[in-house]
Amino acid sequence: MLIGLLRRHLHPYAQPLLAVVVLQFVGTMASLYLPRLNADIIDRGIARGDTDLIVRLGGWMLLVSAVQVVCAIVAVRYSALAAMGFGRDVRAAVFRHVTRFSAREVARFGAPSLITRNTNDVQQVQMLVLVAGSMLVTAPIMSVGGLVMALREDVGLSWLVVVSIPAVAVAISLITRRLVPLFRRQQTRIDVVNRVLREQISGIRVVRAFVREPYETERFAAANADLTDTALRAGRLLATIYPVILLVLNVSSVAVLWFGALRVEAGQIQVGALTAFVAYLTQMLMAVMMATLILMMVPRAAACAERITEVLDTEPSVVPPREPVAPTGPAGVELRAVRFQYPGAAAPVLRDVSFRVTAGTTTAIVGSTGAGKTTLLSLIPRLVDVTAGSVLVDGVDVRDLDPETLWGRIGLVPQRPYLFTGTVASNLRYGNPDADDEELWAALEIAQAREFVAAMPGGLDAEIAQGGTNVSGGQRQRLAIARALVRRPGIYLFDDSFSALDLGTDARLRAALRPVTRDAAVLVVAQRVSTVVDADQIVVLEDGAVVGIGRHADLLDTCPTYAEIVSSQQTAGASA
Predict the structure, then answer these.
(1) CA atoms of 385 and 103, how far apart (whole Å)
(2) 374: Cβ–Cβ under 8 A, 6 or more apart, which residues?
(3) By 3-state DSSP, what share of the chain in percent is helix, strand and coil, each rounded to 5?
(4) What is the C-alpha separation between 359 and 522, in angstroms, rounded?
(5) Burial code of 183-216, b = ≥16 C-beta within 10 A, e = fewer?
(6) Residues with Cβ < 8 Å from 214, sequence gap 6 or more?
(7) Which of 70, 117, 127, 272 is a Cys-bridge partner for 43, taking CB atoms 3.0 to 4.6 Å apart?
(8) Which domains, and CATH codes, for the chain?
(9) Per-residue pLDDT tens digits for 547-559
(10) CA pair distance 196, 202, nearest whole angstrom
């Protein structure tokens, strides 16, 4: 999967990578030439007292060193450009693909894991590209070139190369094989830490309300300790690689000097040639060390690439149509024998649900907790697709509509309204980027939010924290309603969007909505009967099935489930 990911996203950077190969080749050849020049200075210059030769060869060494340095610098620059571009492209590809996911795929991976895969995992593969671009060509050329140059200096010492290089390779391969599962486990542990941390930060009020700080501290400590333990085990293995290489390097150098001194004494090799042999052996072992650095990164990068590819290869369950159909009718929603069942669930959430919401009318959906109200609402903007049956918007099955067209006709206020980091104005303009301040204030007026926004420092320019955590639940709901109003869609979907409002604010908001939504189809999911009592029709759900459709007065006589809901709320109100 690592090779496939690299092939797919490194293709645009073929020219910079080719330049890296050429520059590294030139720089490595220059590096291999330096010990030979140094040997000539010792054997032909210093031994004979030829100062002119020493100066001339010294000048060549400076020139070759300059070429080596320039090639290395430029190669690293091109390698960095390719690596950073690769990382940017992969992150963008993952982001674009995840935005096409339905709620089903997001739930399958989990938000913390998707974030880790698009940040930490991509970074690990990106670092491999950077390091490999800097060393991948150098290491084999230096190894082979160093071997050839060492044999040119003295064949009699070549057995030391035959012993030392395989010893390093075998030791590294044994260590690397144990690293692969550890790195894969480490990335999973990072997912767990991110999930626990996200839950604790998002639910800090609940944690404090139930005095669960000690428990959450222990939970995070356990996840953190698990990650630390895995990282330490991998780190201990990594830490053994360099000592092994250095041990072989030092033992080999001592052996070369020992046996080389005997050959110098016997007149079989000159001092300069022995010095060059030591340099070439060192270069070969350093090449092995560079290859080791890459090999150390490959297991973790491979595990990360597998996780990234898993996301990119996951096909969204909600796909746009190949040939979109244009809406044919007035604003409206119709459900025909709708059935929906989550993968792996024992029973469907919705069963044979059918009703119609026409333009200019309001339809309310009520039912006990778990009846399938929110799931039903999610089917209309195609957050998930029906298992059977069909959902029509403006006379066309939503699966045949272009997603942008579908979403452009719907104003959704979710059960848990989410505000983005920015200002009040930037959040409201999510509904309509071209809306002016006057339209924003008008929407706030209808949503009963004008008063508190005007009181905030900066008004429309008041800062909103991530998730809207610096405003109350009721204020967050009203801002979300205003955001939908700014859009002026043909269909409004309110998913229990008035639950955090007091009865007076609820009544004023619904009264203000009527003139604005006069020509629109309105679908309201609500828990409070007072919110839906004036609806044109009320759909009562029980265990995912429709058990009643009609107006408030009619359902009191014909639908026991609705009558029970009304009775329970009246009893609770009287008790309060």
Answers:
(1) 10
(2) 415, 495, 496, 525
(3) 70, 10, 20
(4) 8
(5) bbbbbbbbbbbbbbeebbeeeeeebeeeeeeeeb
(6) none
(7) 272
(8) 2-312 (1.20.1560.10), 325-409+489-576 (3.40.50.300), 416-488 (3.40.50.300)
(9) 999 999 899 989 9
(10) 10
Helices (H) and strands (E) in the chain, counts: 21, 12
Cβ–Cβ < 8 Å for 105, 316: yes
What is the reported pTM?
Answer: 0.72
Of 1, 331, 17, 408, which Cα lies nearest the Cα of 180?
Answer: 1
Banded model confidence at residue 573, pLDDT cuts 50, 70, 90 = low
Which stretch of DSSP H or E encloses residue 247? helix 213-265
Residue type, 333: V
Taken in order 201, 207, 211, 215, the sign of the CA dihedral is negative
Contact indicator for 548, 371 with CB cutoff of 8 Å: no
**482: CB partners within 8 A, 6+ apart:** 428, 440, 443, 444, 446, 447, 449
If residue 156 lies in a helix (H) or strand (E), which one and from where to where? none
The residue type at 74: V
For residues 535 and 363, give the distance between their C-alpha atoms in angstroms, rounded to a whole number.
6
Give per-residue pLDDT as tens, 442-480.
999 999 999 999 999 999 999 998 788 888 888 899 999
Alpha carbons 343 and 386: distance in angstroms, whole number: 12
Give residue 303's identity as a one-letter amino acid code.
A
Cβ contact 226:266 at 8 Å: no
Question: How far lies 280's CA from each of 90, 242, 249, 255, 290, in Å?
Answer: 40, 19, 12, 14, 15
Mean pLDDT of 67-91: 90
Strands 491-495 and 332-340: unpaired
Name the pairing type of β-strands 422-423 and 463-464: antiparallel
CA 282 centroid distance within chain: 42
